[in-house]
Write a structure and sequence with these properties.
76 residues
């Protein structure tokens, strides 16, 4: 069976921006896994987010820092 493309499409930059926001707000820590983002997106969007991450070779067990890159964190 061929996987189908999700009907909702979010680009990697939008996902990255939301991850940065969650880390900067202290809601998530940059060392936590990407799959925790699922709690902060509507359930109907998560398949599209997961698909987009996979298209860019991210695994859900990868850390948020892998997605957002190194930044000067205000609080570690």
């Amino acid at each position: 069976m061929t996987p189908t493309l999700p009907t909702i499409r979010l680009d990697l930059d939008a996902i990255r921006q939301e991850a940065v926001h969650l880390v900067e707000q202290g809601i998530l820590h940059y060392q936590q896994p990407l799959y925790l983002l699922a709690s902060y997106f509507p359930a109907r969007e998560w398949p599209a987010i997961e698909w987009e991450l996979e298209q860019h070779d991210y695994l859900l067990r990868d850390r948020l820092i892998d997605l957002i890159g190194h930044r000067a964190w205000r609080s570690d």
